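Can't attach files on this board, so I'm pasting raw text. These are the components:
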Amino acid sequence: MEFTQLSLYDQAILLLAAIVLFTSFIMLAQPRIVPLIHAFAWQGVWLAVTTALVAYVTDHPHLYISAGMTLALKALLIPWMLHRLAVRLNIHRDIEAVRYPSMTLLAGASLVVFSYYVAIPIVQLSELVTRNAIAISIAVILLGMLLMITRKKAISQVIGFMSIENGLFFSAMVSTFGMPMVVELGVAFDVLVAAVLFGVFFFQMRESIDSLDVDRLNRLREVDE
Amino acid sequence: MTAVWLVLLIPLAGIGVMALIGHLRAAGWVNVALSAVSFAVSVWLALIVYADGPLLSPSRMLYIDAFNVYLVTLTAFVGLTTAIFSRPYMQHEVETRQIGKGRMRLYHSMYQGFMFAMQAALTTNNVGILWVAMEGATLATVLLVSLYRTPEAVEAAWKYFVLCGVGIAQALFGTVLLFFAAEREVPTRDDALLWNVLYDSAAHLEPTVLTLAFVFLLVGYGTKVGLVPLHNWLPDAHSEGPTPMSAILSGLLLNVALYALVRVKMIVDGALQSGLAGYLMMGFGLLSFMVAGLFLHRQRDIKRMFSYSSIEHMGLMTFAFGIGGPIATFGALLHMTVHSLTKSAIFVTVGHAAQIAGTQSIEKIRGLIRTQPTVGWGLLIGTVAIAGFPPFGVFTSEFLVLIATMKSWPWLTVPLLVGLAIAFAGLFRHIHPMVYGDPPEGQVPVRANMLPVMIQLGFVLWLGIAVPVFLSKWFEQATVLISGSSPL
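---
Top answer:
Structure tokens for the assembled complex are below.
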């Protein structure tokens, strides 16, 4: 279907979904820690806005709760915790060299194309207004993984991890209007606990290897020479 | 129904109770007591299911049938024996490694938390909650792996956290896809993740979407099972964490992850009407089995070595569940049980052996039989059992899997037998000098409670000589559930 044939609401949802994907690319290219956390927070904000719009358009009131949860957890609480940790660990001014930045972005772009390919069978089955965003949600998941692979700082990897969670939430929302509430609450709880644990970890890591560079974690290997 | 709720509520309460008890000696005993009560309740639950058949709670949140109830009991039993072992072991660790009281409170509290997450994963009827509980089990254990705070331990815990976190994220995506497929077939949305509803309507689910979902779920839960090539976290987490953790990770967590995979396979098989899910599991299983067997030879750390043995056995079980069919399924269920019992017994013994020698390095552990005969013999008998010697139970289950392979995939028995031989050689070339030979200077016996080990190995022996009637009936019921027909 042509883009202009869609209703204005559908177009708005697609636009918002695209912005969410765009924040993933910003994260991929952002070498400084604090702006990276901000980009992650913005992803949470746009995700919450998208969810709220879908809730309004499709008249699914339970999605307002999901939107509120996303806003509180992904856009405010977790970024705030990460920011505070970065300041306390004195890494908030660090710049992380992104190796092969253009290659990374190119890889990201191909992942988006790949997501559209993976989503074909799902999109064909779906009649929801949000079906065109399914591929985008898969792309957000894959880009989160790419972020984890390309970064060496523990805190950037955590942001990648949380961004994967964003993508998963997004995919559940656009493909089925959200999972049952019990499951969603459980997942949100797990994410929160994980965020707290990551914080504890940063301190353990600094205590034991004096750095948050994951590259320094290289003592365990299969056979020592 | 009360029994099911108690199985969950006792460890849940245990999390809080253990967090409050600062007195180390008391904490060890309370942990044992809580685990003992959990075990008693799980036996009660097993008796109820044995008499009345499958249970579905009125809210349909919990579902117990022959397949998961024996895992609930097994989990509670290994939880109890490991708690008994952990009491003197952790006291020794506190004395030698300077672990503070706070960390021991964390340890005990998370021990119960882990048990809670496992029982929740086993008893829930909701595929989504199953995911939440699996992730919860990871979160509960991740700080325990880094308990010693050495750089290696922190590295192992980080790997465990990140790899399992990302891996299991794929399983969540698979669950979303499952929900997507089920939502259109099931009248009420909130029912679409309930396992019994999914199972009943499996034939109507869209095959393409379910294939995609299964691939994601296989990768996701497969990471947790430790399937090659997603196994990297497993040897690290096992070797660097405290030994009771290794015992319950190997003995229980891997089982529960495989349980999740098999439950999903049951749905996918119903929808696909083809063996695709089984073929995928067979491939991954066989690969893990062969690769882990080879890696056994190259290990220098005793706990690492046995964690590779866990990968090998999980691979064999995945393979067997993949073949499907009554005999293979029966063999896999039996193997799950005997592997849990044997492997947790071995890790208990290995823990004591490492304390005696003051190191985990295979080259430095020597002459255990002379220093402390119970530990030496325990390690030897445990290894004989896990290597699949008759008359131990592992032999029986491996034999059944071989028979099933011979029947449906004759040419696959060759790699299977070769793999078994490789693994056997790998274990014994390392074990032999550790057990026999002259002990080095300065090795002194430690305070060890070998009773749980004896009981567990006794059970494995019993299962090898004759599977007791109530247990075989149980396995048969579970086999009928999974594969649709009875093994005999």
